[in-house]
Amino acid sequence: MSNPLSEITVKSIFLGIILSIILAGANAYLGLFAGMTVSASIPAAVISMGVLSMFKKSNILENNIVQTAASAGESLAAGVIFTIPALVLLGYWTSFDYVEVAKIAAIGGVIGVLFTVPLRRALIVTAKLKYPEGVATAEVLRAGDEARKGAEDDGSGGLKTIGIASLVGGVMKVCQQGFAMWHAEVAGAMAFGKSIFGIGTDLSPALISVGYIVGRNIGILVVAGGLISWAVAIPIYSAMVGFEGDALDSAWDIWNSKIRYLGVGAMVVGGVWSLIKLFNPLVKGIKASLNAVKNRSADGDVPLEDQDMPINYVGIALLALLVPVFLLYLDIIGSVGIAALLSIVMMVFGFLFSAVAAYMAGVVGSSNNPISGVTIATILFSSLLLLAILGTGSSVGAASAIMVGAVVCCAAAIGGD
């Protein structure tokens, strides 16, 4: 019998933490700048292979741990940036409290991890989804491991490519913003009668990189969404309602206050449809997890890749996590009953949207996961619920809805990872 490979080692944990910090910061910047985030699994895998190849003893399992940690970090960052800034914009927070943000991210992240246990069987084993980025990451790791064993390229070539690309992007950004050699954005709008037609573009290394990662199909969809907004919806709305002042400023005001909610509605409908399609595989996956608990002693040794946390442990852990979630909401709302209700709402929506995020990752990849969309859907429902309970005079209703959305967003981000 061959000796098992080391998996969780000091160097894999240390490198995973370092890459998680770096890639989480990069994804946070990208999400706040462009409203989109990308998966860091493949870059993390390439960097890991390049760095760990410097050690005499390293293997594919260590590289997998590193890319998993790095990817989880950047995914959790996406969960935070789409929700927490709203608390400052609302005036509920005057600054970002590190401890509070860490608590929200930790609670939501752990809940997301626990939700993925039954989802793994439902989506990978039962539904057999493609998971394009997961498969691509596995192939990168496998190719790097085979090359290392064959004394060929050990991952340093990919690391060199990432370094050159980072240098080029940095030079572009310095020339663009530091020396003002060219404008970052070119936009314009014209009025034809009562309608406004606008068009614009943004030359950013980050956006170019996102387009390269998400691919042609998603890029075309993003462009189509922009055209629908600026060439169809804004002209129609401005013709119906009218506008005052500069055409470009008016177009931005209309888009910001009215038109972008068309996209939110489309994402909500898409998410609901995904849930409907996911129902049968999800039920089968949960049944398979329960059967695995019953048959664990009879089956003997279970292959490493087929081992799951027992579903009863998952249930106990989720019940235990209701306590910090309840205390988090109680601190804001000040009502035991409403805090308990919000905790239950968060768990229900956390599971539903973790399932949606995991399903979408399996279909179109983690980089194309509509985390912001499912978060907005959660906040809309929570807002309606709090409006019915508290009325319009509450000073904490909006902040409470954001807090529900924040935990759900972190859980869904990890679920899609």
UniProtKB/TrEMBL annotation:
<feature type="transmembrane region" description="Helical">
    <location>
        <begin position="76"/>
        <end position="95"/>
    </location>
</feature>
<keyword id="KW-0813">Transport</keyword>
<dbReference type="GO" id="GO:0016020">
    <property type="term" value="C:membrane"/>
</dbReference>
<feature type="transmembrane region" description="Helical">
    <location>
        <begin position="36"/>
        <end position="55"/>
    </location>
</feature>
<keyword id="KW-1133">Transmembrane helix</keyword>
<feature type="transmembrane region" description="Helical">
    <location>
        <begin position="396"/>
        <end position="415"/>
    </location>
</feature>
<dbReference type="Pfam" id="PF03169">
    <property type="entry name" value="OPT"/>
</dbReference>
<dbReference type="GO" id="GO:0035673">
    <property type="term" value="F:oligopeptide transmembrane transporter activity"/>
</dbReference>
<dbReference type="InterPro" id="IPR004814">
    <property type="entry name" value="Oligopep_transpt"/>
</dbReference>
<dbReference type="InterPro" id="IPR004813">
    <property type="entry name" value="OPT"/>
</dbReference>
<protein>
    <recommendedName>
        <fullName>Oligopeptide transporter, OPT family</fullName>
    </recommendedName>
</protein>
<feature type="transmembrane region" description="Helical">
    <location>
        <begin position="259"/>
        <end position="279"/>
    </location>
</feature>
<keyword id="KW-0472">Membrane</keyword>
<feature type="transmembrane region" description="Helical">
    <location>
        <begin position="311"/>
        <end position="330"/>
    </location>
</feature>
<feature type="transmembrane region" description="Helical">
    <location>
        <begin position="218"/>
        <end position="239"/>
    </location>
</feature>
<keyword id="KW-0812">Transmembrane</keyword>
<feature type="transmembrane region" description="Helical">
    <location>
        <begin position="371"/>
        <end position="390"/>
    </location>
</feature>
<feature type="transmembrane region" description="Helical">
    <location>
        <begin position="336"/>
        <end position="359"/>
    </location>
</feature>
<feature type="transmembrane region" description="Helical">
    <location>
        <begin position="12"/>
        <end position="30"/>
    </location>
</feature>
<dbReference type="InterPro" id="IPR045035">
    <property type="entry name" value="YSL-like"/>
</dbReference>
<feature type="transmembrane region" description="Helical">
    <location>
        <begin position="101"/>
        <end position="119"/>
    </location>
</feature>
